[in-house]
Each structure stands twice: as structure tokens, then as C-alpha cells.
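Chain A, query sequence.
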Amino acid sequence: MSPRPTPQPRGPRKSTAKRGGSPPAPGSSPSGGPEKAAARGATDPGTATGSGNAAGRPRGKRAAAARRSSSTKPARAKGPRFAGSTKPSQPTGLPRRAPRAEIDVHDPDGIRLQKLLAAAGVGSRRVCENLITAGRVTVDDQVITELGVRIDPLRQVVHVDGERVTLDESRVYLAFNKPIGVVSTMHDELGRRSIADFLGNREDRLFHVGRLDADTEGLLLLTNDGDLAQRLQHPAYGVPKTYIAQIPGPVPRDLGRRLRDGVDLDDGPLSVDSFRVVDSQPGKALVELVVHEGRKRVVRRLLEAVGHPVITLTRTQVGPIRLGELRSGRTRALTRSEVGHLYAAVGL
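Chain A, predicted structure.
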């Protein structure tokens, strides 16, 4: 008899069952038998229609939705979030402010609002009525949309499209082109020419907003609105003033940088808001400076400190008001829009 062949070692048998399960019994289906498959078919549309895989698991978007819905993940807390936030506790935006309490601005003894606006030059009576009904008019920060509102023009503040409207007809706002040799005062005890010499016989008392040296010409604002005049001169509001100065040339390239960086004066350092060369000729130049401080002879002292003493000096602008083509020694009334821009410049 021939010897029996030595049995060869067999490798591990591959199981067709799922990991962690037992191999299927003979004659049973891999999905767990017809009974389980039928049970799954009642709840799994993928199996019932034959669209599932060999394990009875549905495919596609329906399967993904089913898995998401059956996830044991805790429900996300509801509530607003910032864009891109992962924490439910984070809000989506700033907390809502409590609505401002409405104030009754109606004054039974006052004047109709549309009449006052028309008298102030805002527009015709019909135009003013349309502005009110469109919600573009506020009285004491309250939006007015009714046409029957009456107000006190001396006590209440009115804005149209955010611009203040002066309703007091006694208020005066003038631009004056002060000539050289005129002192910035209404009456001079030494008998020198003063501002009053150019105003005629006006009965209203006017204030000059700031001062200009006798050797400096240009724009000077005159008004009887004390609150506005005080704010325009106060350094806290930083109202810019523009000057054109003629100085000896040539102008070095770094002069503007030096002035913007600041120059030490006797009463402290000072810098300009802007500087540019307007014109240059042999031996002299015209330069423009913008400053927001009102120290005495500030522009002259500043330019002298950098080696370019002033030859002539003219102020051409105060805040939003420009000198323009106003002739020397003349005055003109400011427009309603200019007055509104002045109020806005000082937060009124």
C-alpha cells in the first residue's frame, strides 16, 4: 500500500457573515432569511423595490436621509447664531435695542409744521406736506407723518432728511470777506476800522465766529446764534479752517511732511490736517493749509517756525462754508443748506 499523502494546512476560511455575526445557516439568505427580509421590506422602501444592496441597505439620498434621521446625536439647540458659528449660544447679531419711547411733539398753540417748513425755504407748502407724509421730517428726533402737527419754532428742533432746518426767522447767518487792515471786533475803542463799519445800521446783535488778524483777509462768519457760534469756536469739535498763504520759495519737498508730523511752538506742538502747493514761481509760492485749531496767529507762527514766513494770508473756508467769489468788504446770507451743514459739523 502506498503511504497516505500528508494533508496540507488550510488557510482561514473567509466568512460571508457580517463582522461580529455568525455564518448563515444552509439554505438561508445572506440577509437573514425570507422572514426578516419581508419584515425589512415593510419598513425599507429600498428593499421592497429591489433597490437595496446585498445586505438590504438602501442606497442614494434616501439612505443618507434615513441614516441622519435615525442618528442618536442629540438635537441641536435652537436659537440664532453668528454666521459660521458652531456654538448655539452665540447670537447672530447685536441685541435689539429697546424702541425709543415716543414723545408727543404736538403743541396745540404752535404753528403747523408744513407752514414753518415752507417759510424756511424748504419748498412749497405741497412739497413740505409730501416730505412729512413720506416720513422725512423729524421734530425733536421723532419722525412725523401727520399733517396736523403744530410745533413751537423757538423751542423745538426740526430736521429734514437729517439736515437741521432753522425755523426762527430772527436768526442771522452771514459770510463776511474781511479786508486787510480791519480788526475782528464789532467796535474798536482806538477808532480803527472794525466789522461794524461794513454792516450798516443793523439792529440785531451779531457775533463774529473766531478772529482774523488785521493783516489777514478772508472768510469770517457772523451770526446771532450763540449756541452755534460757541460750538464752531470750541476746539472739541475740530471745525477745519482752510488758508492760502504766500511764502518765500522754493518749497522743499519735505515741508508738507514736517507740518503734518507737527511743529513745536511756544504754546505746544501743532500739526496741520493737510498741506499742498497751489502755485510756485521764482522766489515765492502759494500753499494751502488746513488746520482745526484756533490759536492766535497760528498759521503765521507755524510757517515761520519751518523757515517760510508768511507774505500774505487769506482764509478761504470755515467748515463747509467757502469764501467763493465774495468780494472784499461784502457780506452774504448763508443758504438754508449751508446753515444745516454748519449745524451738522458741530453735532446740532
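The mean pLDDT is 78. The domain at 111-165 is CATH 3.10.290.10 (Structural Genomics Hypothetical 15.5 Kd Protein In mrcA-pckA Intergenic Region; Chain A).
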